[in-house]
Amino acid sequence: MEIKVAVTKEKGALSIEKAQLSGPKATEVLVKIIASGVCHTDAAGIHGFIPWVKYPMVFGHEGVGIVEEVGSAVDSLKVGDRVGLTFPSCGVCSYCLNGAPYACTQVNDLFFSGAYKDGTYRISQKGTNLGSFFGQGAFANYVVADARYAVKIEGVTDEKIKYLCSLGCGAQTGAGAVLNRCKPTPASTLVVFGAGGVGMAAVMAAKIAGCIKIIAVDIVPERLELAKEFGATDTINAKEVSDVVAKIKEITDGGAHYSIEVSGVPDLSLQAIQCLRRLGTAVVSSVTGPAEISLAIEPMIMNPGITFTGLVEGGSNPQVFIPQLVEYYKAGQFPIDRLVEFYQFEDIGKAFEDSHTGKAIKPILIFD
Ligand SMILES: NC(=O)c1ccc[n+]([C@@H]2O[C@H](COP(=O)([O-])OP(=O)(O)OC[C@H]3O[C@@H](n4cnc5c(N)ncnc54)[C@H](O)[C@@H]3O)[C@@H](O)[C@H]2O)c1
Ligand SMILES: [Zn+2]
Ligand SMILES: [Zn+2]
User: Fold this and answer.
1) Which residues contact 165 (CB under 8 A, 6 or more apart)?
2) Which residue among 1, 217, 343, 350 is least enclosed by CB atoms within 10 Å?
3) Cα→Cα distances 42→96, 132, 194, 244, Å
4) Containing domain of residue 246, as a range?
5) Is residue 12 domain-shared with residue 149, that is, in the same domain?
6) What residues of the chain score a pLDDT lower than 70?
7) Does residue 84 line the site of ligand 1, with CB under 6 A?
8) Which ligand is nearest to the CA of 92?
9) Cβ of 287 less than 6 Å from ligand 1
């Protein structure tokens, strides 16, 4: 069928064009896209910062929409279901089989190469294959995706579902870092470096988890104010406070139990470690491409028993975790709708610009 895509044919380019989409294979579904989130990982791919990305590519990996056709082997979804598309995984490696698809051995290929797990493509233009980012390519009015990462969303109207795109990546990443990885014990303290779309979700999740101190660190005063509305008990403007680590230690009476680094600034990984108390855990989720910090294993890590971990997609098993986040959303405890700015698909360039300048926290493209 003929579809409309925003395609990147060379580094930095993005143009809306017509293309052909092949029908779903046995385990796949055809989804009419209602809305599609813009994530910084799309921008990183478009601008050549993700080494595994190949062009031409249709980016977009936070699509929500309506199932219009199901493959012969799909038994989890039917025509008319509303779904949120999330990150792909192979389903057969030991990590996937152990319920950790975020650690799938095929992650780089399935996320970034543009090919599906059988090595074939679904979108083409005059005989040339276009890649589908994250096995979806959701900057398009229709996509084909494996049912494995199409998560049924129930009890939310189409008007509201438009706000939930980031469950597929950004919101899941922030909330999952807290709820799946840190699993805060009662009365613990948690720091979030970077109060963007991912960080705000982490703040909301820390409140859900009952953290007693939730500290948001950012350089934009408006974002820090908003973080307070979502549950931050304290905020630090890193432009105004000369020693952020000392300030966190002061607020937390010696160091935080947990820190989440989602600012996209690699150097802050070091602060995420330094601000912890003994046996603390630092989760780094925002590094793209090679990034290095220098740290002393002793005394910084070994003696204090620090856990320093990278994490993709919030350590989420999306078919389980996304419906849980939808329930928190419905209960008013996960208000990610307040982060959203809508743009028509045709205005995708403006959406990226506003994401880059920080004018919009979570731009979402609407398809009519
Ligand atoms: N690992 C994953 O699975 C995954 C998934 C989604 C996004 N990401 C990455 O997470 C990062 C955050 O994404 P986002 O959508 O929230 O981005 P964002 O731009 O909305 O948020 C980043 C925030 O960090 C703040 N910041 C910048 N410099 C800072 C500094 N020196 N100190 C403190 N704060 C600072 C910015 O003001 C901004 O509010 C991106 O790098 C993105 O690529 C990773
Ligand atoms: Zn796998
Ligand atoms: Zn993303």
Assistant:
1) 35, 36, 37, 62, 63, 64, 84, 362, 364
2) 1
3) 24, 12, 18, 30
4) 174-311
5) yes
6) 288-289
7) no
8) 2
9) no
